[in-house]
Write a structure and sequence with these properties.
The protein is globular, with a radius of gyration of 24 Å. A 5-stranded parallel sheet has the order 2-3-4-1-5, with helices on one face. With 393 residues, it is α/β, with parallel strands linked by helices. The mean pLDDT is 89. The longest helix has 48 residues. The structure holds zinc ion (ZN). Zinc ion binds next to helix 3. The site of zinc ion has 7 residues, from helix 3.
Length: 393
């Protein structure tokens, strides 16, 4: 077993990372260390495992056996408690220049073990332009043993100046068979369920796992996939849109509600609220109000992002549904992602033309673009459900 075992269907990337980790060990021992570099960009479609790959590489750099997978160091990196690995996870829609400067400052500290200091930056493309500039400076002039691992969906999501200074590791979409195999062997999911979850999520590992293990997730997907055949009147279109938007808001609430509460009470404790107030100086009280306001803004931004991601996931499920319809209309011999909704797929395939289906897929994609451009979700989704009902009008 090694730290790279968790990377499903990514043999080429793993070979590159193993080689670099070996070169890194050589460099630490005073050798040339050719093949090791201090700035990396991990890219690949959502769910392919960018962060897992970067994390495995971090473990391989810190573990004396280059990622054995069972020593304390490997374990600490995998659970996120190793002092030399900092994982940056932008919580909101963007990452500010202030946060980046603080990060760059921390990154310049020495490693506690005398090996590498690793900064793993998830969704690095969320850095604002000013933040990207601050990041660029840090990558241009890195302290000798600091390694930057940036993750973004594609190299094009990062500004050219940063991209050109990074070695790019590209992850591909893992095959359905590889994901199903991982679910059965590693998570003990029964074969039929594993096959279903892998097919339905089309190579998105985390989603496949959730779908296989969580009934609520399966129920939500079912409700999204039963939407197409429910669109028979304008009233139903409006209702369906409302339901989709509401479900994503519930998702965000469920994912963040508890976290928000504990963060806020933690911060209030730091600033002494809940005590009698005696002995608190005014400056501290003012500072507390500012910090709480800042935290609330961050929480709001995080909720917005989760709401958006959840809605986007529903739209991707819908797009996959219509792609299945198109495959049936063309009698293409491909795996259907919504095989479990076969009756609906067949019915819609018979009642419409391939041109209709293409227009419907366009409508879903247009809705995604509008949401990304901050159009009011209710309006964007309603426009989509109406186009799904009558693709030609
Ligand atoms: Zn190890």
């Amino acid at each position: 077993m090694t730290v790279f075992d968790d990377l499903v269907g990514q043999d080429r990337a793993v070979a590159v990372l193993r080689q670099a980790a070996a070169a890194g060990a050589e460099a630490l021992a005073g050798g040339p260390g050719t093949g090791m570099t201090h700035a990396w960009l991990f890219t690949g479609p959502p769910g392919a495992g960018r962060t897992s790959a970067a994390r495995a590489f971090a473990a391989a750099l810190l573990c004396p056996d280059q990622g054995c997978g069972h020593c304390d160091l490997c374990h600490q990196v995998s659970i996120g408690s190793h002092p030399d690995v900092e994982v940056v996870r932008p919580q909101g829609l963007s990452y500010s220049v202030k946060e980046t400067r603080e990060l760059v400052l921390r990154a310049s500290g020495a490693s506690t073990l005398g090996r590498w200091r690793v900064i793993l930056f998830e969704n690095a493309h969320r850095a604002t332009e000013a933040a990207a500039n601050a990041l660029l400076k840090a990558i241009e002039e890195p302290p000798p043993r600091t390694v930057w691992l940036l993750c973004s969906p594609s190299p094009d999501d990062m500004v050219t100046t940063i991209r050109s200074r990074c070695r790019v590791v590209t992850l591909g979409t893992p095959s359905t068979a590889a994901v199903a195999h991982m679910l059965t062997t590693r998570d003990g999911v029964p074969e039929i369920m594993a096959g279903f979850a892998a097919r339905a999520t089309q190579g998105h590992i985390a989603r496949a796992r959730r779908l296989a293990q969580d009934e609520e997730t399966r129920r939500r997907r079912d409700s999204v996939l039963s939407l197409p055949r429910s669109l028979t009147t304008l009233g139903h279109c409006v209702e369906a849109a409302e339901r989709l938007v509401k479900t994503s808001a519930e998702d965000a609430q469920e994912a963040t509600g508890h976290l928000n509460e504990s963060e806020t009470s933690e911060l209030r404790k730091i600033y002494g609220e809940g005590s009698t107030g005696k002995g608190l100086n005014k400056g501290l009280v003012r500072g507390g109000a500012g910090a709480i306001k800042e935290l609330e803004d961050r929480q709001k931004s995080r909720a917005t992002r989760i709401k958006r991601d959840s809605l986007d996931q529903a739209l991707l499920d819908l797009a996959a549904f219509y792609r299945d319809v198109l495959a049936i209309q063309f009698r293409a011999d491909v795996e259907l992602s919504a095989e479990d909704h076969r009756a609906d797929l067949d019915e819609i395939a018979v009642l419409s033309t391939p041109e209709d289906t293409l227009r419907r897929i366009d409508a879903v994609m247009l809705c995604r673009e509008r949401l990304a451009a901050n159009v009011n979700p209710q309006i964007a989704v309603e426009a989509m459900t109406v186009s799904l009902w009558r693709p030609r009008s």
